[in-house]
Amino acid sequence: MNQMMGLHKVYHRLTILSLFPLCPPPLFPSLKLSRFTLGHLRTHHSANSARLRSIMAAATSRLGNLVSATSFVAEDGGGGSNVSVNSSTGTSTLDDEALGGKYQLPPPEIKDIVDAPPLPALSFSPQRDKILFLKRRSLPPLAELARPEEKLAGMRIDGKCNTRSRMSFYIGIGIHQLLPDGSLGPEKEVHGFPDGGKINFVTWSLDGRHLAFSIRVDEEDNSSSMLRVWVADVETGKARPLFQSQDVYLNAVFDNFVWVDNSSLLVCTIPSSRGDPPKKPLVPSGPKIQSNETKNVVQVRTFQDLLKDEYDEDLFDYYATSQLVLVSLDGTVKEIGPPAVYTSMDPSPDQKYLLISSIHRPYSFIVPCGRFPKRVELWTTDGKFVRELCDLPLAEDIPIAFNSVRKGMRSINWRADKPSTLYWAETQDEGDAKVEVSPRDIIYTQPAEPLEGEQPEILHKLDLRYGGISWSDDSLALVYESWYKTRRTRTWVISPGFKDASPRVLFDRSSEDAYSDPGSPMMRRTPSGTYVIAKIKKENDEGTYVLLNGIGATPEGNIPFLDLFDINTGSKERIWQSDKEKYFETVVALMSDHKEGDLYLDQLKLLTSKESKTENTQYYIQSWPDKKACPITNFPHPYPQLASLQKEMIRYQRKDGVQLTATLYLPPGYDPSKDGPLPCLVWSYPGEFKSKDAAGQVRGSPNEFAGIGPTSALLWLARRFAILSGPTIPIIGEGDEEANDRYVEQLVASAEAAVEEVIQRGVAHPGKIAVGGHSYGAFMTANLLAHAPHIFCCGIARSGAYNRTLTPFGFQNEDRTLWEATSTYVEMSPFMSANKIKKPILLIHGEEDNNPGTLTMQSDRFFNALKGHGALCRLVVLPFESHGYAAYESIMHVLWETDRWLQKYCVSNASDVGTELDACKCDANKDVTDSENKAAAASGGGDPELEDFEHQGFHPVPRSLLW
Asked: Roughly how many angstroms between the first and final C-alpha of the chain, as a whole number?
């Protein structure tokens, strides 16, 4: 319910899995309500450590083009040692030209942290009696990213595997019994699949007796890289292919497979009669033509990887078309339905029906496949067509305004608490958020097979945009609606089975107001595998209680809680709360829901996590009534060399009175009174708010463990840097004011306040403060070097966008066009201020960036603009990398480049700070004032927010916030 609670976490919790564009899906749906994700649970398994190390060593041994590098000699002769030599040229690592074509390795103190073997992810059985340890490999070699891929309809497809390209995978599955005392039994390894098999899409059968997963083995033979579906017996660990025929392959471009019942699966397969891919004609049949002679208004953001011509359309059909096959564990196989581009398949809770979605022609050359014509049909589970629910036309004209949606039926789903009842939403404003209408959305419901003439029933009407439903039973469901422009969010209580019961508002609040977040209802698993709101009973009490699991944002930091909430009276009792003195604890999932029947408070069993500043996350089973916590994990520290790092959440104030926060990290053993101020790296990402009060709220906890991902800024703690992580940089537009019209002013004010705070604390040297960021953080970095040269000595900008005229139909959270807010687009673009950037700036970008707002061209053109004005700059383009970096060589080189830049232009910076600060500050203030005056004169004031991701929904949090 708190739309921003995940934002702070992402900065510190990135792990290797989060660098891949397509990760294995969540295996425990209820865990999505909390911090439990596959990417976060990095667990240790001694039995597999040697294997993981050997895989990493083998990968490293193949990287013949890597050149080792350690510390660099400062230009003044101090601050470094151990100059590495490029063996092919005999020159030092400071010779940029000699190193131009080689991948480099960062210093050992950074490399050793990144090289640590990744730890397994966890998944619990439906009966909560077993745990899977899903084992992962280290960073992939660049050769994997270099595999050919087809860029079609907004997707990237690995034709050799017939799946999305660059998928992460597991290398093994270990099964542990969860014993009654909370401890784990010995590991049982899933076995029987080929050595070197790459595992994806691991799912439990409904009864927890079997696992289904895909396996692929990369060999020279093209067919061997195709995915096959395997099943494993959980009791024995023995795995076998699901299909008896070796010629049946999985098509995982969209959906892959789903358990229909305990003994059968519905699988998307590659049609057996498909043949070879279409060949690109040497001579086109005609020119490429797009027309708007009907004068339609079609505004779209800068989508990438779109279809370009008829050949692309044919190629998309070739890879995306599936044949659905119903297959039983006994080997019985039945093809159902015709081959089509199926995008999802969802069995009804009673296992009688299938909700099947597909897309079809006419395709589009200006929008991705998510907006192609969409057909939704209802079949029986044995493949008989029941009825068509909708056939939506091509949606090229969805307005760019936030909360704009597709016309017609959307969010079609099964009611989780009914055998086979459908529900969906339909917009009443033609999908245009700028249209004022009441109601804005209507939610409908209908049985799978309605009686003749029976019309859909109106379940609820909403004046904001529909955001989902949590079901419980006929007496209780929670309906969510929200509106981004005002940040308003509402939760309604409805009684779906009682038509005369009036809906009532349960919560009505600002989504920005973290302090007022009441938490989200905890869900319990049903025997059919769906999840419903867990109702809790108390002895001798007839009240209707639910569990609200909240992050517990407070001015002292997050203190997670669990409330027993009376849904009828609104009264609540806090039955659990995190230790706020030393630890950060959270409720991860309900563990006492495996049996049918009522859930009683005194029999409650939960999965919780516990961590501190220096102790990594461990997991516990906590049982009522005594609330005894039994540990089920004992993971070692992932980077013991930084185990004693220092962490503090700090608060300070911007000159306009806005309260700001940041997390300050200091190296192990650092004492400011003895060691003096350190070089400092500030790494951040701006956010947008509608109120100063919300912007000033504290997010995060001082007791959270410092998770360090492969490209995290915290790696430079090992290089004796102070790290100011995630200082809040709120861009505020209160009332009718648009935040972006004062973007530069607020950006500079926030940065000034942050830097003044660390200098005042004596931990940061005023002339040795660097700034950096990824994506919108890179945009921030460039703007700060342009408009606040007095603050920072250098900058690192990764995968950013710098010229907003190249994203003319909105960016980040800005939903006005370039022509509606010309001055805002221009003033916000650091490209337009390239002549003002005098401090060293390192630009890094993936050559294959597919993010809608951050084309690689952005960095190319910005670099040329900087170079054209004599700026000290460097551009590093990473072959085969996308918006987030994945390959071992790429990541290591990014770390080397960053460390080199920081050592050379931050650690070794010897400028006269006092004189420069005074001079530059005057110039910067003049720039900001001039910028404001120009913007006001041109537009009369008013403008909104920011980001480089295409985003049509409510949440302003971007897909990627990588370090």
From this structure: 26
- In this prediction, residues 424-434 reach a mean pLDDT of 97
Q: What is the pLDDT of residue 356?
A: 98
The tokens of 758 are what?
Answer: 């660390």
pLDDT digits (tens, 9 = 90+) for 217-243: 976 655 568 999 999 999 999 999 999
- How far is the CA of 168 from the CAs of 145, 372, 709, 710, 840, in angstroms? 11, 27, 16, 15, 35
Question: With 90 as the cut, is the pLDDT of residue 289 above it?
Answer: no
Q: What confidence score (pLDDT) does residue 593 get?
A: 86
| Cβ atoms of 709 and 962 closer than 8 Å | yes
Beta bridge partners of 521: 548
Compute φ and ψ for 299, nearest 5 degrees: -115, 125
Residue 524 — very low, low, confident or very high, per pLDDT cuts 50/70/90? very high
Beta carbons within 8 Å of 915's beta carbon, 6+ residues apart: none
Q: Name the nearest CA neighbour of 390 among 380, 399, 378, 379.
A: 378
d(CA 331, CA 320): 25
Rounded-to-integer distance, Cα 903 and Cα 920, Å: 23
Tell me the mean pLDDT in the region 479-506: 96
- Do residues 391 and 373 lie in contact, with contact meaning Cβ atoms separated by under 8 Å? yes
What pLDDT, in 10s, does the model give residues 903-945?
A: 999 999 866 444 444 544 455 444 444 443 333 333 333 332 2
Residue 810 gets the label, from left (phi > 0), alpha (psi -120 to 50) or beta, of left
The closest of 670, 543, 673 to 601, measured between CA atoms, is: 543
Is 860 tagged catalytic? no
- Tell me the percentage of the chain whose pLDDT exceeds 70: 83
Contacts of 252 by beta carbon, 8 Å cutoff, 6+ apart: 161, 162, 163, 164, 200, 201, 214, 227, 268
pLDDT over 80 at 886, yes or no = yes
pLDDT at 6 over 50: no
Tell me the residue ranges of DSSP E strands in 591-683: 599-600, 605-611, 618-623, 628-631, 646-653, 659-666, 678-683
Residue 379's beta-bridge partner residues? 354, 385
Distance of CA 744 to the CA centre of its chain: 27
pLDDT band at 667 (very low <50, low <70, confident <90, very high): very high
Cα 465 to Cα 120, 437, 441, 477, 521: the distances in Å are 39, 11, 6, 17, 20
Residue with tokens 């720039």: 927
Output the six-digit token pair for 851. 């993010």
Q: Which amino acid is at 234?
A: V
Using a cut of 0.90, tell me whether the model's pTM lies above it: no
Question: DSSP assignment, residue 167?
Answer: B
The kind and range of the H/E element at 123 are strand 121-124
How do beta strands 764-774 and 678-683 pair? parallel
- Nearest alpha-carbon partner for 718 in 911, 908, 898: 898
Distance between CA atoms of 770 and 678, rounded to whole angstroms?
Answer: 11
Catalytic residue among 849, 899, 927, 943: 849
Q: What is the 3-state secondary structure (H, E, C) of 813-850?
A: CECCCCCCCHHHHHHHCHHHHHHHCCCCEEEEEECCCC
Q: Considering 40, 883, 893, 951, which one is annotated as catalytic?
A: 883
Among residues 125, 165, 168, 775, which one is catalytic? 775
Q: Is 775 a catalytic residue?
A: yes
Pairwise CA distance, residues 20 & 7, whole Å: 19
d(CA 766, CA 756): 9
Residue with structure tokens 């070739």? 318
Residue 218's pLDDT is what? 78
Cβ neighbours around 568 below 10 Å, total? 12
- The confidence score (pLDDT) of residue 909 equals 83
Q: Check residue 96 and give its pLDDT.
A: 53
- For residue 815, which of 651, 636, 947 has the smallest C-alpha distance? 947
Beta-bridge mates of residue 605: 623
Q: What is the mean pLDDT of residues 841-850?
A: 97
pLDDT given for residue 100 in this prediction: 61
